[in-house]
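LOG
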Amino acid sequence: MLIKDAAAASGLPAKTIRYYESLGLVQSRRADNGYRQYGTRDVERMQFLARSRTLGFSLEECRSLLELYDDPGRASAAVNELARQHLNELDDKIRELNAMKHTLTGLVSRCPGNQSPDCAILDSLAHG
């Protein structure tokens, strides 16, 4: 199938498919006319990448997951460890986002939000 068909089947934009191909995450074959050709297995890999990215895995983590997926002798412990590491990173990000939200909530509550030039948000940004 052509890239537009692979894009429709995988849910990825053609531009993303070309980018993943440039990184070696997806491969295509070239038809005599130079057009990229993809098979069912290629689309499955694209879907795998799309779902992995939806869960927030980095491109390098996706590469590792694909390598594990392609290895019939893999140990599920390796997959589990990679996922646990990612989960820990997500927990760290959630804590950071909650701290940012808490700080910004406090600043918003102290800014009068009226026609006055006084603003706790700008003061905090300017002076820490």
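LOG (cont.) second protein
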Amino acid sequence: MILTINNVIIVAFITRLFSKTPIFYLSNMEIKLLILSSLFAGAFCSKFPEEFLFGTATAAFQIEGAWNEDGKGESIWDRFLHASGRENGDVTCDSYHKWQEDIDNAKALGLSSYRFSIAWTRILPNGTLNFINQKGVEYYLNLIKGLKSEGIEPLVTIYHFDMPQYLSDLGGFLNPQFVDYFEDYARLLYQLYGSYVKYWFTFNEPFSICSGGYGSGMTAPGLSLNGDGIYQCAYVLLKAHARAYRVYDTEFKDQYNGKVSIVLNTNWFEPNSTSTEDLDAQERILQFYLGWFANPVFIGNWPQVMIDRIANRSKLEGLARSRLPEFTQEEIDYINGTYDFFAINTYKVYKARNTEHGISYPDFYFDMGVTYENKYFYPEGFRKLLNFINDRYNPGSVIVTENGLETTDYLNDTDRITYLKDYMNSALEAIEEDKINIFGYTVWSLMDNFEWGSFERRFGLIRVDFDSPNKTRTWKESAKWYQQVIATRSLDN
């Protein structure tokens, strides 16, 4: 709790009430203070800064639909889900046709920012510059200009999981040439939209990209290479991020003065016990999850614990070299410093337990040697994570690019309100008490969307009726609550 001037006045008044002094013997000064307190009640309560960016987030594949309309090419998620026979992203929220309604809802909420991603295949159908799809270019130009006209800052993610299938067929993140393709794509977006967009994110959640798509195989493109491909993915992705950052910094920064970074993701992990082993496990899992990508960008090179453990296990497995690709000094220097702020997605808190594995087969989780379990509601963990980021990586500024709660399909989502209020309060405490420069908070999500294989998982402030032809949007109670938070910049409502 943050004690305010108004709190002090009220506490003093209550103390006087319960004393033996009659109420009508209040001093003139106390009476004046009470009058001022009633006139300015709430004026001194804790508030988010004036320039704070209140936002919501979405991603192209999850809301746009129109998967093959107006020249759009096939993405890895189109192929992955069509081949599986599961629910797919062919229509979702139909935001490709309903983008103006989405802007209207963003405006009504009072958002100061809106984070969305650009579908690579809507701009470049096969991922290369040999054909630029003008209808796709115009779609995002209309969206961006529409947001700007309402005073909403567009926060643009260049890559949010949906690689062009053609580039995946060429090897995707296992192909070093991907760096060149991504450079071409990023430069084109800077040229098209740079005069409107001040915040760019190169990749969303590289940990999810590599661990799901090239490790477990549970997400597109569905490759199960959990001992080696997962690390090659990270190696190529980080070089692609650095290339896109350097392109903006050298070719567009002076003209547009925008900012570029990468969106990292992790949950917070508490040690399962106070044992040295579990305390080490807490540090280790944070390095394997967050440090894996944060270290090269904010410090330089992989975390040392990853270098040492993977090299040692690779040797014991009979390999001639580590399964973790080694950066050259030139690559370390090129990647290091490629950020203008720290962007973080986070949702839950887990307990981490040391779990060492014998030598059997190569595996990311064996390399890490940690299991985690018992997820629980602990918003204080969010504040700890923010402090960990600020202390470990010293980024200068931080934006929370995703945070939210999954529910089922109902409008009176008081559990989401409780979750968001507690997590936002932790962020506010980090700003005011810990002096961390957090300049924005982005709720996942503006509306219910397609959560990578399922319509059942509902994260939206706004309900979407996926069974209706119009994909009808209806505000939940959490949307009304967030609207008031933004209007007052305060959680006291």
